[in-house]
Amino acid sequence: MANFRTLGEHIIQSQAASSNSTGELTSILSCIKLATKVVNSEINKAGLVDEIMGQMGNTNIQGEDQQKLDVYANAKFIAAFKARAQICGVASEEEDSFIAFESESCRGGKYVVLIDPLDGSSNIDVNVSIGTIFSIYRRVTPVGQKAELKDFLQKGTEIVAAGYVIYGSSTMLVLSVGDGVHGFTFDPSIGVFFLSNESIQFPQTGKIYSTNEGNYPFFSDGIKSYLQYCKASDPASGRPMTSRYIGSMVSDFHRNMIKGGIYLYPSTTTAPNGKLRLLYECKPMAFLAEQAGGIATDGKRRILDIEPTELHQRSPFIVGSPDLVNKVLEFLDEG
Ligand code: P6P
Which numbered atom of ligand 1 lies nearest the CA of 276? Predict the structure, then answer.
């Protein structure tokens, strides 16, 4: 427990150190902390309560089967955001379009939030870690009006704060407000997140690669060559590398950020734009990666530089230790 500091105290101290501190970001992060505790409580009893296990029997705009906990988590986070006057609107991976909060107080909000309420939710029923991913932007439309689409279609370089929650062996909230990446572990006995990992940094290189190799036949020649490189025996360069992929990007990302590694969900012949969502998954995780000294690319461009054109657009996503990402880019250039 790094110097016995709570998430709340860290947020306040970060804002106090920030030149444009107004306390509004503190309030937004506080409501995310609250919603996370509520969702965490439900997830932890998922195996015991049939009503929240399994599928809803419908699909979201992504065409993915919605799990009952997807819908639950989505509703709780949106309700928490709606109760904060600092937030004028939200865009969620589980919603067809963005939600502009109607109340006069919310129309005065200066920030919007984008969220993937439960990433990797197909893992819920098999007790594998899942996650929440969020990012916060200043609105670009005038305060006092309802939020508009352009408030949500901003480049990742405009992110004010981003983070993820891993509901795993312990529940951990990892956050950056632009001052590095810090991890807070939840103590359920007193309902508090304590600073446990201060100033997390991606190792420059690593031995772990994370990708769904079942897509191998559909990968580009460059990606295929890179994966062959990972598996080749060359002890001098620490190869063969180790394959670790659990189907929850938040968990694969977190392990790779701590130990050194790379996560790849590249474009394929069957999904030229990849699978992951640019706004809800790639950009917040790219913000965190760069804050931790890592690199995040779509194979051609820096993720944070990509100008979004629609809420649910997808992007190829390659993120991790600098030396490993740069090696992939070499193979892609050759390919
Ligand atoms: P596949 C979860 O649905 C997710 O968005 C990421 O968290 C995860 O890494 C990936 O998709 C898994 O996709 O196609 O390998 O099952």
Answer: 5
